[in-house]
Structures are given as structure tokens and as C-alpha cells.
Amino acid sequence: MNDDPTSLDQLHEIVLPPPVPWFPLAPGWYVLFALLLALVVWGVCAAWKSWRANAYRRAALEQLKGCQTITAISETLRRTALAIAPRATIAPLVGEAWADWLASRADCAMPPEVRRQLLAGGYAPAEQAVDLGPLKSYAAAWITSHSPLPKQQG
């Protein structure tokens, strides 16, 4: 054996430290997990609140499927409007005022044929065949996309 300290015979294997364990975690990870949990809970609560707030829309769309007359479709629209506005606002709306109110709350434009059907509504002869397709599609679009009235302040 060689006593020279610079000799290669004197080398030893490098001893590596053990790998850093995942647990226990550093405090920052617990803070991050708590923030993520709070964000998930907030998201679930917001989704639940939105789903419940739109229950009247789902019910109106289900009712609209069974409507076979202009009067029934208009009645469904009026019931839906009563879910977002006070009765005192909706009840006096008839004729042009009703069609204008519907058009002002919708994201989609009201076709002239639909406006004419809403105005003539229950006054058209019963034996006359009427195409309800455009009126039903507008009503469905209005129900799904109308903007609710802003909250009353005070």
C-alpha cells in the first residue's frame, strides 16, 4: 500500500445523502393545498348557485316543448318573465309593449313574423294553420339567453 495522500489507492467512494422525502411537506405546500381546496369549494358553490338560479329556465324549456298554440307559447314566455321581473311590471304589458319588452331583454333579434304572431296571438282564427317553428325557436332562444333584471337597490 502506498502512503502517499495523493495516490489513487487512497480514494473512497462518494457517499450520497439519502433522497429528500416528500413527507413531511414544507408548510408552503399546505398553504397551497388549502388555497386550492378553497378555490374548488368556491367553484362548486358558484356552479350550484347558478344551476339553482336557472331552474326556471329549465322548467320553461320543458313546458315550451308541449306548447301547440301561439297563446300557450306566449303564456310560457310570460311565466318566464314573471320569474325575473315583478308582477306589477309584467302584468300590464300587452300588444306592442309586450313584444318590445321581450325584445329588449333578449340577446337575439325578434323576427317580424314572431312579432306579428305575438301581437295577433289569441285573435287569429282557430282553423287557420300557423307555423309555430319560428315562434318556438325564438321563445327557446329568449328563455335560454334573456338577461335578468338588475337587483333593486335599497
UniProtKB/TrEMBL annotation:
InterPro entries: DUF4381 (IPR025489)
Pfam family, one: DUF4381
UniProt entry keywords in alphabetical sequence: Membrane, Transmembrane, Transmembrane helix
Superkingdom per UniProt: Bacteria
Transmembrane regions listed in the UniProt entry: 28-48
Record-given protein name: DUF4381 domain-containing protein
Native species: Blastopirellula sediminis
